[in-house]
Design a protein that fits this description.
With 239 residues, the protein is mainly alpha-helical. 87% of the residues lie in helices and 0% in strands. About 3% of the residues have low confidence.
Length: 239
C-alpha cells in the first residue's frame, strides 16, 4: 500500500511539473510527457506512448489530461490516474484563476506580449520534436509510411485551406486501414501454418498407430514363461 501511494505521489509531482512548465496546449506537452515517463521514469515505452496518444486524441477531452489519466492508470491503477490527472490540471487551474482577476491588464503588458511571441516559437519546436520521436518509434513498414504520408498531406491541406475536418477522423481512417490490412495479412500467414500443423498431426498419428501395431505383433509372437514351461513338459512326456 505504501509503495502504491508513493507511486501516486510521484505521478502527481511529475505531471504537476509537466503542467506547470508547458505552454501551447496538449500537443506541446507530448515531448515533456515522453521525456518524463519514457526516458526518465521508464513507466512506459515508446510504442505504448504512441497508443496512449492515439487513444487520448480519439476520446473526448484535452489530449494532455487524457494521456495523464491513461499513464497514471497504467502505473498505479485508478488511484494513480486520479493523482496524475489532478497533477496535470492543477497548475493551469491555479494560474488561470489568479490571472482571471486582472487578465486584461496582464495581456496588455508589453513584456508579456513579447514573452508569448517567443513561447509560441518554442512550442512549435517542442511539437515538432515530439512528432520526430514518435516517428522513430513507429513500426517501419510500407503501410505505416503510406498512412503517415497521407496523414501529413491531409493535415497540410486542411491547415492551408482552413477546412472544417477534425483530426479524429484521420486517426479513425488510419485505424480502419490498419485493421483491414493486418487482418488480411495475418489470415494469409495463418492458413499455411494451420495446414502444416494438421498434416504433421496426421503423420504423427499414423506413425504412432503403425508403431503400436508393430508392438502388438511382436507381443503376439513372443511367448510367456508359463507357455514355454508347459511346452517343455509336454515334450518330455512324449519322450
Amino acid at each position: 500500500m505504501k509503495t502504491k501511494f508513493k507511486q501516486c505521489l510521484m505521478l502527481f509531482a511529475t505531471f504537476f511539473k509537466i503542467g506547470l512548465f508547458t505552454f501551447g496546449g496538449g500537443y506541446a506537452m507530448i515531448s515533456l510527457i515522453e521525456t518524463e515517463t519514457v526516458e526518465r521514469k521508464k513507466w512506459i515505452v515508446g510504442p505504448d506512448l504512441l497508443n496512449i496518444i492515439a487513444i487520448a486524441e480519439s476520446t473526448p477531452g484535452p489530449i494532455a489530461i487524457n494521456s495523464a489519466t491513461f499513464i497514471g492508470y497504467r502505473v498505479a491503477g485508478v488511484l494513480g490516474s486520479a493523482f496524475a490527472t489532478l497533477g496535470v490540471v492543477l497548475p493551469s487551474f491555479v494560474i488561470i484563476f489568479a490571472i482571471s482577476f486582472f487578465v486584461q491588464e496582464f495581456l496588455a503588458l508589453e513584456l508579456v506580449s513579447r514573452a508569448f511571441k517567443g513561447i509560441q516559437a518554442a512550442v512549435t519546436i517542442l511539437i515538432l520534436r515530439a512528432g520526430l520521436k514518435m516517428i522513430k518509434n513507429l513500426k517501419k513498414n510500407v503501410l505505416s509510411l503510406v498512412i503517415a504520408t497521407l496523414s501529413l498531406a491531409a493535415t497540410v491541406v486542411i491547415s492551408l485551406f482552413d477546412l472544417n475536418f477534425s483530426s479524429v477522423f484521420i486517426i479513425l481512417i488510419g485505424a480502419v486501414i490498419g485493421l483491414t490490412y493486418y487482418s488480411i495479412t495475418d489470415r494469409k500467414e495463418r492458413v499455411p501454418t494451420e495446414g502444416y500443423s494438421r498434416t504433421a498431426i496426421i503423420t504423427e498419428t499414423s506413425g504412432d498407430t503403425q508403431r503400436f501395431g508393430e508392438d502388438e505383433e511382436n507381443r503376439s509372437n513372443e511367448s510367456s514363461p508359463d507357455e514355454d514351461r508347459a511346452a517343455i513338459e509336454e515334450k518330455e512326456d512324449r519322450q
